[in-house]
Design goal:
Layout (H helix, E strand, L loop, with lengths): L5 E6 L12 H4 L3 E7 L3 H10 L4 E3 L2 H6 L5 E4 L6 H10 L4 E3 L7 H14 L3 E3 L7 H11 L6 E9 L15 H4 L3 H17 L2 E9 L10 E8 L4 E7 L6 E8 L2 E5 L7 E5 L2 E5 L9 H11 L10 H21 L1
Parallel strand pairs: 1-2, 1-4, 2-3, 4-5, 5-6, 7-10
Antiparallel strand pairs: 7-11, 8-9, 9-10, 11-12, 12-13, 13-14
Helix pairs in contact: 4-5, 5-10, 6-8, 8-10
Length: 328
Amino acid sequence: MIYGKVRWGIIGCGNVTEVKSGPAFQKITNSNLVAVMRRTGELAKDYAQRHHVPKWYDNADELIQDPEVDAIYIATPPGSHKEYTLKAAKAGKPVYVEKPMGRNYEECLEMIKACKEANVPLYVAYYRRAQERFLKVKELLENGAVGDVRFVTTTQYRKATEDSNDLPWRVQPNLSGGGLFFDLASHTLDILDFLLGPIKEVRGFASNQGSIYDAEDIVTGTYLFETGIHGVGNWCFTAFQDEDVNEIVGSKGKITFSTFGNEPIVLTTEKGTDEWSFERPQHVHQPLVETIVAELTGEKGICPSKGESGARTNWVMDELVKEYYANK
């Protein structure tokens, strides 16, 4: 499946597509955004006019069947990821789906199966895998900067900002799969998979301490990577301030970095500390989408974020919260 130029269609041209992703499809060589869809037609039309996109739809099926659309970017909440992925696969079109990949691991497996049977690639929008900042962490690990990796710790918490009378989709499990943990922690768990390899065992606790909504608002867990590395994570979304720290500790040093911030990456060893700073991309999806376009057009390069890796992250999250939802 080789394209001279990839013509993209977006299903769900909401906020995430305004700057983070949408413009990237128009700026990348051999890529073009030709159609967008939103259920409210006037909003789709407005987006198309502002971003100079020639076509707009208020029906996803019409966009998917458009013969001038080669590949589909699904930028809706996770509750509809499986539905649109299966439809795009049936139409024979590659899929780039937002994260988390699905509401649960089972949905991810169905999406992978459908794309394999249709012989179309399935990519997942864990865009940090292609950003310079995280590639530097990977380079440090591969070059033995911390020696043999022993364990990784994650501490991520933030103040509660939700209004119980007007809850966003991100804390409605029927739309998102869970609470903010699914939306935010998925990025960290995926980048740890990228840096340290797949996780093979998981133990977790989830609770609702703030009583603002029904979904979990705190998750703590431990996990064991296939490589033997240990991991510990703590995510809380009703704390007194915002915090975001990951530490990878080895036999000769440690690497400290954030998932969402832009603080320097810090390497600490017996010799002292070294730091690396990186400018955040204007369109954070662009480095990853560049790898997708290169793959689809037969250029050198392979996308590092596909259905199989995206599904692994969903499996880890499911394991961490399964007792909470089983009890509900």
